[in-house]
Design goal:
Layout (H helix, E strand, L loop, with lengths): L1 E8 L5 E12 L5 E4 L1 H11 L4 E6 L5 E7 L2 H14 L20 H5 L3 H10 L3 E7 L2 E2 L5 E7 L5 E10 L1
Antiparallel strand pairs: 1-2, 2-9, 3-8, 4-6, 4-9, 5-8, 6-7
């Protein structure tokens, strides 16, 4: 885990703080969801930002960061929905090694993941921006920050960037 706080003067003489943290971990794979809310809130507290915005981002094409409820029934329903919309047994040109010539690595050739890329595109942006007020994430009562793995078990990371005063 790497952290980096910075402070800069604003046009009106105030000081704008920025903070960056990168967290590494290993996912369980296959539509696994990890609640990272407490880690993100710790980063906000460490940043010293009282009022601003916290961006949480996944730099992976088969992962996503979302804000939603962390509840077993919902997570099961969502997994069933994604698998129905994007079945693993469907043909994906991304996995056709007779056709694919771009962005190829040995690791990718061992396991098909065209379905994971399609799921990720349906998820929308790879991250979330969450307001910070009085040094606390402005989340609703049941909202949590979730890291979604849409592919196989892997080493992953997420980035937290906090900006404010």
């Amino acid at each position: 885990m790497a952290s980096a706080p910075e402070t800069a003067e604003t046009a009106n003489g105030g000081s704008l703080k920025t903070f960056h943290r990168e967290t590494h971990f290993r996912t369980a794979g296959g539509l696994s969801v990890t609640d990272i809310t407490d880690h993100v809130q710790e980063a906000v507290q460490e940043s010293g930002v009282r009022d601003g915005v916290c961006c949480v981002y996944s730099p992976h094409t088969t992962c996503s960061v979302r804000v939603n409820e962390y509840e077993r029934g919902f997570l099961e329903d969502f997994s069933v929905l994604l698998r129905r919309l994007v079945p693993t047994e469907h043909y994906y040109a991304h996995d056709d090694w007779d056709r694919r010539t771009e962005n190829v690595s040995e690791e990718d050739m061992e396991a098909s993941n065209g379905h994971s890329h399609c799921m990720s595109m349906l998820m929308g942006p790879a991250g979330e921006s969450i307001p910070v007020r009085d040094g606390v994430l402005c989340l609703g009562r049941w909202q949590r920050v979730l890291f979604l793995e849409l592919d196989r078990e892997r080493d992953r990371r997420w980035l937290v960037h906090v900006v404010g005063v």
